[in-house]
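In this notebook, the sequence line spells out the residues, with the fold written below as integer tokens. This is how one looks.
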Amino acid sequence: MAKKPPARKAPAPRGPVKNTGGRPAGLFTWIAVGLVVAVVATLVVIKVTSGSSNPAGASGFQATDAATVKDLTTVPMSVFNTVGVTSNVAAVSPPIKLKTGQPLLTGKSSTGAKVPEVFYFGAEYCPFCAAERWASIIALSRFGTWTGLGNMTSSTRSGEAFPGTPTFTFARAHYRSKYLSFAEVEETTNQFSASLNNYTPLQTPTKWELANFKHYDNTNFIPGITASQDYSIPYYSLGNQFLISGASYTPALLANQTRSQIATGLSDPSSPVTDAIIATANYVTATLCQLTKNKPTNVCTSSGVVAAKKKLGIT
């Protein structure tokens, strides 16, 4: 088993906070926040293990500026199609297709209609959540619009993996779409509390949200992991038909760059950061097209999404 640097677990329903075990390299995907770091092949797992407190506002919330949001949510179609599902510098893992017969996860669209839902469970301190948010925001922007995104970095606390990874927070975000709904839990901030010996609680999952997370984010649905790696973040249920457990590419790619630099670079398909983010976004888009019955048509029939569908074995 590969040795990993220490990673503090995020809060969960019960139990003490302690460090998690590593995960062997070469599994079907970099799951449960286990990431093969670009050259080193070291894995890190962040797990949810202790209860959260009452909801709170995002500490020091800073709204993302309009220019960055525009760069993030208006990536040219040509970039998606040029990248496809290939990154020249890092492996990109696709979402997991769940066993047949799972009940469709639904919510309310911005018009009040019953639609498939995307459910995210993560935390602001988590670098793997940080990396995955880029791609998930981009993918969902192809089906709707975002407001209320905030600037965030993963924890800079000594000993944490990929400290200060630039990203966003969903804590005050709102998503509007006629095709999909989005629900989120940012369970903790990126600020460590010495009195709690953990990160400061932020949002509390509902009983149903916690049940969904516990039901799917484990060895019953994720091939190749052990029970000690169950219930790790980031977690996305894509309508209960696909899931993402862990980051799809290494956060190392985002190091030493500002949020603005990464966002501006999204118009350049030759950027090594861009191709990993966009390849991930194409995979996520393909799963969402499956949920929306291939609407909108121009997105779901684009060559980048078609390439992702082919890799995923869906139409």
Summary: The CA atoms of residues 101 and 242 lie 12 Å apart.
